[in-house]
Amino acid sequence: MDFETHFSTRLAALKEEGNYRVFADIERRRGAFPTAGRHRDGEVQDVTVWCSNDYLGMSQHPDVVGAMVETVQSCGTGAGGTRNISGNTVHHLALERELADLHGKEAALLFTSGYVSNWASLSTLGSQIPNVAIFSDEKNHASMIEGIRHSRADKVLWRHNDWRDLDRKLHAAGDRPKLVAFESVYSMDGDIAPIREIVEVCEAHGALSYIDEVHAVGMYGPRGGGVSEERGLAHRIDLIEGTLGKAYGVVGGYVTGSTALCDFIRSFASGFIFTTALPPAVAAAARASIAHLKGSGQERQQQRARVAELRAKLDRAGIPHMANDSHIIPVMIGDPVKCKMISDILMRDHGIYVQPINYPTVPKGTERLRITPGPLHGTAEIDHLVGALSQLWAHCALSRAVA
Ligand code: PMP
């Protein structure tokens, strides 16, 4: 086989479809977020970032930066090994206690990312619980899909957020062991699962419940424990999974649950056992971020106000966006080439950075700009964004929503 020709033909096809991903060459600057620098013609242009998952700007918070710097000074950079072989530190253990407390669980277990936490946990549970069937919401994230696939457990898809469909499918499975995997906030549409109903169905069928709260931890609930905390349901969910890389502004992933469940994953998950532990400074920074957001609702309130302001202004301008109850505002374009073009023009002419979201991240025909307002965006920046989108809507002859 001519490998090089194969690679370049496939890449050319992606470009043709408008689905080729291009990195934005932006540079984050301490204290400036959501403003970033972009190198252009030998100069640095200021751009406002509107698509960051550093939802609350915690990557810049003095407590978080301070904890990371201090721990690098005292511990050095890398962990130096897996958790089991020389990589464990007091910082990892303290962070796991912090996470268990956040979700009101007995224990927690850290991973190097949210992706790995889903992949490793589901592949372990699916392969190590004899005859288990995994019931997966059809819109679950790739990390869950891959983990389930790798486990080789029987997988049953249920219709997105449709607890009645889940109920029917669990019923049809008889009395074998069952695990139900779903998310709280779905990242691309920003819709929120009917968690209470799903939990009740799980309880009725004796199924193990597994929720991904990656887009909700730090953001929802009085202490940032996610939608399960906000709705008073965390104690009824067996396993809560989250990330340290989005609202907490650092990197890493975790699961929380009973001591036995976490110890089981710790003991059998290759994605936990055979990889270097997170740097201690990362663990310390994440812990500082969680501790801050447990005690402070200010960032969450400010963010909610910004989300409401942007939605109202988009409505007034007739820019179509998907309705949901979360902080994610999907502005619908519906065409991959236009989506990329609008994103490029926003960056080039308006100093606005919103990455286009195309297939396969979202279904074809639902291409969009995924906008995530944060507490650090101001009214002037919101007005600038809506003004630029309005101009582009007219320019690209996109249809407007009825205001
Ligand atoms: N779950 C969901 C729902 C996600 O959207 C993502 C990442 N976008 C992950 C898990 C993976 O988390 P991380 O970025 O920490 O690997």
UniProtKB/TrEMBL annotation:
All residue ranges annotated as the Aminotransferase class I/classII large domain in the record: 46-389
Family (UniProt): Belongs to the class-II pyridoxal-phosphate-dependent aminotransferase family.
GO biological process: protoporphyrinogen IX biosynthetic process
Source species, domain of life: Bacteria
Pathway: Porphyrin-containing compound metabolism; protoporphyrin-IX biosynthesis; 5-aminolevulinate from glycine: step 1/1
Any GO molecular function: 5-aminolevulinate synthase activity
Annotated catalysed reactions: succinyl-CoA + glycine + H(+) = 5-aminolevulinate + CO2 + CoA
Listed EC numbers: 2.3.1.37
Record Pfam families: Aminotran_1_2 (PF00155)
Organism from which the protein derives: Stagnihabitans tardus
UniProt keyword Protein transport, yes or no: no
UniProt name for this protein: 5-aminolevulinate synthase
The protein's assembly and partners: Homodimer.
Keywords recorded for this protein, A-Z: Acyltransferase, Heme biosynthesis, Pyridoxal phosphate, Transferase
Cofactor(s) recorded in Swiss-Prot or TrEMBL: pyridoxal 5'-phosphate
Alphabetical list of InterPro entries matching this protein: 4pyrrol_synth_NH2levulA_synth, Aminotrans_II_pyridoxalP_BS, Aminotransferase_I/II_large, AON_synthase_class-II, PyrdxlP-dep_Trfase, PyrdxlP-dep_Trfase_major, PyrdxlP-dep_Trfase_small
